[in-house]
Each structure stands twice: as C-alpha cells, then as structure tokens.
Amino acid sequence: MTQSHSHSHSQSGSERKRDRLRGVTEQPASHGEGRYRAWIGRGKGRQVNLGLYPDRWLAAFAYNAAVEAVRGDLRTKNEIPEKHQPSADQVRRINARVRGRLGLDQPIPHDEVPPSADQLLTLLEITVASFWRGQVATHVADLGRELQVAARRLAESARLLLWSHSSGHPTACEALALLLGRRLDRTFRRADVTREVLDDDGDDELRLARWLVYPDELPGGGGFRETIAHLYLADEAVDSSRSSTIPAWALTLGVVPPFSSERVRFAYRARSKTVHPDAGGDHAEFVRLQAAYEDAQNYCTSRGL
C-alpha cells in the first residue's frame, strides 16, 4: 500500500511539471475571466506583462508570440495541443496585443490620412508666410536684410512641409509659385501680371519667397501692390501728387520709396524688357534708362540700401 501510494504521488508531481507552461501565471479566482497572465523576461529581472487571458492556452500562445517576436527561438515555445489552438481572429488580436506590449509596433489610427497638398499649401500661406510678412513689416528700417531672412525661413518651411513627393506634394519651388500666383490674382486680378511675374521668378525659390513675405504696404509708401504695379504695369503712370518727392531716376525706372538696391534692380530689369533696342525699343530711351539705373545705384550705395 505504501509503495502504491508513493508511486501515485510521484506521477502526480510529474504531471504537474509536464503541464506547467512557460510565461504563464495563474491568478486568483477573484480576477474573474482574466485568470491567466502571460509574461516574458526581458533582461535582468525584468518582465513584460503580455496581458490577462481567460484560458491558459491563450496565455501560452501569447508567450509563444512574444518569443517569436523578440527571440526567434522555437525551442523555448510552449507546446499547445491542436484542440486548444486559437482561432485565426484570436491569433491576429493576440499578436497585435503582444507586439504592442513589447513596443514593437506603434498603433496607427485607421481613419488617419495624410494632409493633402492643398491643405499644406493653405497652412504654409496663412501661418508661415503671414508670420514672416508681419516680421518684415515691423522691421522696415533694414528692409533688405529682413526680406532676405524671412524669405530663407519661408523656403525652409516649404521644404519641411512638402517633403513627400510620392504623396503628390509639389516641390518647395512649385508650392511657392502657386502661393505667389494666388496672391497676385487676388491683388491685381490680371492674368498677364501673374504670368509675367512667374515667368521672371517662378524658377527661383528665394525670389518667390521674397515676394510672398513682402508686406502689402510699407510706412512711407511702397509695398507688394505698389512695387509690382511699378515693375510690371509700366503703362500706368506714377501718381503726379508724389512726383515732386521722387527722384528723376526713380520716375524713369518706375520705382517708389522705400528704395533699395534690390528694388532698383527689379525695376531696371522689367523696364529693359520693353525699351531695349533688341526688343524693339527706342535707343535714346534705353540710354536714359541706363543713366537712371546708374544714378539709382549711386544713390543706394551712398546710403547703404
């Protein structure tokens, strides 16, 4: 009798050892349905909780999934009888849960879509371009330098926002040209003006950005509207009420205060297109334009403009 009892006790211990599952701990009955916790060791004394499961075999499968994800050692997996294998849906959910607990996958909302090119263009226009335009307007004492800084920052922002060309985003230069076209259309409502400005500067990222950060108006006169009008609407006369305060060279070039080397150069280039003899213009008028340009350069150089 004693020998038989000892043999029975030995079998019971062997069965318990055989049924023990790696990475599975049974919780008290008070846990309800989630009585089995799956876990896996990661480093010295560190355990990652893989979640609670209603069935010990599901918890065992969660451990196996973690082993495959972080170790790839099939010999350490639990053997799960065929009748206790999880369904396809359970496999999918447990794998996703385990990878999330291990920090291997970042959850991506299914309803999240990347912003469209139009949305990014609007963001660039109403936030970045408007901000830098305001900065320039408050620092007109050093207009040339402020325009350069603001234009560079706007161009950098365009490159950062519109980086995914595979998603249909335009290049930074294309985006700035689109925004400048919108601004010109709103301001002048003349397709010829928009076309001429973009023909001149549409392939130069920084020049496009400069026009976009150029304030609508500037203290003492000038600004986006007035500068574009004098550069590209040569047929519109300069306001006679202001002619007495504007140097003769400025009237010839069609540029208004505040003066700068950059604005003078813009004006000279625009006027040259119409008065240069090679373009069918009058030679005498072109000579006057060159003299005015030289006077303008001397004026700006002497004042550090």
TrEMBL record:
The keyword Transcription applies. It comes from the Bacteria. Residues 20-81 form the AP2/ERF domain. This is J domain-containing protein. CDD domains: DnaJ. SUPFAM superfamilies: Chaperone J-domain. The keyword Oxidoreductase does not apply. Residues 1-33 are annotated as: Disordered. GO terms for molecular function: DNA binding; DNA-binding transcription factor activity. Residues 14-23 have a biased composition (Basic and acidic residues).
